[in-house]
Amino acid sequence: MKTINNLNNYKENSPLVLSIGMFDGVHLGHQSIIHHLKEIAAQIPNSQTAILTFWPHPRLVFNPKDNLQLLNTIEEKSQLLKNIGIDLLFLQEFDEEFRNLNGEDFVRQILVEKLKVCYLVVGHDHVFGKNKSGDFSLLQKLAPELGYKVEQMKAVNMHNDHVSSTKIRLALQNGNTPLANEMLGYSYSISGKVIHGKKIGRTIGFPTANIEVNDIKLLPQKGAYIVEVELKNQTYKGMLSIGTNPTVNGVQLSTEVFILDFNQDIYGENIKINFKDYLHAEIKFDSLEQLIDRLKEDETLTRQYFS
To answer: What residue numbers bound the domain in which 56 lies?
Structure first.
């Protein structure tokens, strides 16, 4: 997959089969659009599949105080799109000039003149341009004149509701990782460097790796989770805690993983955590002994999950 960070640098003339959107999470709804892009491109000689997405998220531009956290970093989103087999990824900065384009100018100047789009596939609720002045009906109206085809995909439904990035975020904020994973089509993950913590875990027989997580990433609800750990091309079983360690009067939020059957110094290493299931909410115990007993219970449940 080729990534283009500045649309002005794009000089190719091959016809593009393209979709537009944030694609946060690259969930099952997004994947259905991408698979359809690939089916169409297979029928158009010399064409390429492409995604046009934006950074930062438009919601953060229009409302900087919005505490929106995302399902993917740019790097994660790029890797997911690459894995699915997209040919071109356009990363457009959502700057002043771009956000002031109205819907029709966006279609004429960006999609047709710059990108040579021959076929557009958009989501069921996609809007674009200043004041949301562009939508599927505008794309349909301009298509005959500008020489492209356009198609609108239906939503992917699950449990009598359509899959969306917002619903996945809500599931994670409620600790419902199995539902979030079902809508994503893969396990939700966080990645980061292993950093030094207070090292309390090692004193009670459960040494943990503290993870430095990108601020833009959505952390699931505080609590304990069953996870898979990817480290140095190996996969391990683990228990993850998100919280402030209230039993020892902690105040700072931390993300810590206890890796089962593991004893290595991994400070400074990059680690990836795949969420599998929710164990319980964050608990303040009356003693370290109670905490240790609960950790032993969690370990038993984690081993049972993987067996």
So the answer is: 2-162
